[in-house]
Structure formats: C-alpha cells, structure tokens
Design goal:
The structure is a single chain. The protein is mainly alpha-helical. The protein folds into 2 domains: 1-107, no CATH class; 147-259, no CATH class. It contains 11 helices and 4 strands, in the order H-H-H-H-H-H-H-H-E-E-H-E-E-H-H. The longest helix has 21 residues, at 129-149. It is elongated, with a radius of gyration of 19 Å.
C-alpha cells in the first residue's frame, strides 16, 4: 500500500533507494523505469517519489554534479547523512541495505542466481553458508554498481556484451577488505582485459590512460599486439558515477603492474 504524499521516508526506504541509485545508470533515474516502478510499489512509494529521491542522491554525487547535471536543490539532512555513511563504509552500507530490502520485501530477482558466480571469488575457508551467501550477494551488488556506472561497456575496449564484462577490483579483495565493495575500487573490463589487469600486464595511469607492460611485448604474438599493446596510451572511458580512485590505481601501479 502506498504511503500518503508528504510522509517522511523511513531509514529502510532510504537505504533501499540509495542502493538502487548506485545500481542504475544516471539516464534511467525516471519514474517510467520499470525497475523504479517495481521497487516503489514494494517500499510503499510512488514511482515519481522514488525517482525524485534518486535524483536527490544524484545532487550529492560529485561525479554527477561536476558534469553540470544535478538533482533537486533541497536535499534533506537525512539524505546527506546516509550518503556520507555509505561513502565511509561500503561494507556496512551493503549489509544494512540488504537487511532493509528484506524487511520491506524487496527481493532482487537476479541477485540470488548471479551471486552464485561472481567475478572474483574470495576465500570462503571457515565461513558458514549464511556468510558465504552474504558475501556473494555483496559481490553481485558491486558488479552491478560498477557495470552500470560504465553503462555496461568495457572502459578500455568498449565491448558491450554484459556476459563478457567483469567488475574488476583495482586493489585486490584480499588486500583491502574495507574497500572490497567500494565501486571506486572497480573498473568495468572485458574478461581478457580484466585478467591482464589482474596479473599486471596492463594498468591505468594518473592521466586515466592505459599502460601496457613491455615485459611481454617482444615475445608476444599478433593477438597480443592487437588486443593489448594497441591500447597503450589510449584514454579509458570514464564512468558517469564512481570514477576510479587515484589511491587504488596508484597501489595497482606500484604493487601489481609489471612495468
């Protein structure tokens, strides 16, 4: 049942809305979006009210406002607070968002199935089944947030086949658990470029261009040249939201890249 117009948003509703904001491209934050319509019905809000809430969150996102686009002018202190909480601790935000979704009956139809095969599987040794599922769903959310930010295109090659795309961690999961769900620690890459990035054959410079290691250049075949070396010096396509953080890219260049 929909709430009366003007009724204050509960924390649970706001958590669900902010989580949805993270997982939708900026151009789809409108009341006609079927996903917004479905979610609005489940949390007891109108599609227009939910779309307005998402636009308000956009006005707090520096990646959006820096392009000249913005949300509504009067963002509540509660929205500002929950945005700050998310930025400070992505893991905790993910946990609370999932709990809020469960309390409101908002089930992501894709999360359970897709969480069975995430892009980068951590070590589950000693974890119970509930903890394993929670981590996998967190990984699913990370994947969706990163891929939607890049409009489901590899930021190096432009490949736009979702089944061949990976939400690649810049600073590895095993190294920095605090930022394992932070989308600014992610890049949308093709499966090939994800693997090359993971083993240090390619990296991203401060200028947001691709750098290809010369360690393999002399022994590489023609495919290596066309699929990897040819991108050396080219700029990556930056996302609409959650651009890669310089601190994570710096770590990758210093500790992963083969130089």
């Amino acid at each position: 049942m929909e709430m009366a117009s003007g009724t204050s948003w509960t924390r649970q509703q706001s958590l669900v809305a902010l989580n949805l904001y993270c997982q939708l491209p900026f151009g789809k934050l409108h009341h006609r979006n079927p996903e917004i319509i479905r979610c609005a019905q489940l949390i007891g809000r109108t599609p227009s009210a939910l779309a307005m809430k998402l636009t308000n969150f956009a006005s707090l996102d520096p990646a959006i406002t820096s392009t000249g686009r913005s949300g509504l002018p009067n963002v509540s202190n509660a929205d500002k607070a929950i945005w700050s909480e998310m930025q400070a601790d992505w893991d905790q935000f993910g946990i609370e968002a999932r709990e809020a979704a469960a309390s409101l009956g908002v089930a992501d139809s894709d999360a359970t199935s897709e969480a069975q095969a995430t892009d980068e599987l951590p070590d589950y040794t000693g974890a119970n089944r509930q903890a394993e599922v929670a981590v996998r769903i967190g990984q699913y959310s990370f994947r969706r947030t990163v891929l939607s930010a890049y409009d489901y295109r590899c930021c190096i090659s432009g490949l736009a086949v979702p089944s061949l795309l990976v939400a690649s961690h810049i600073k590895p999961w095993r190294v920095d658990e605090r930022n394992r769900l932070n989308p600014r620690n992610g890049l949308c890459l093709s499966a090939l470029h994800d693997r090359a990035f993971d083993v240090g054959i390619i990296t991203i410079t401060d200028e947001m261009t691709v750098s290809v290691s010369q360690a393999h250049a002399t022994e590489a075949d023609g495919f290596f040249q066309s699929a990897l070396s040819s991108y050396h010096g080219r700029p990556i396509t930056l996302p609409e939201k959650f651009p890669p953080a310089e601190e994570f890219l710096s770590y990758h260049r210093q500790h992963v890249f083969q130089g």
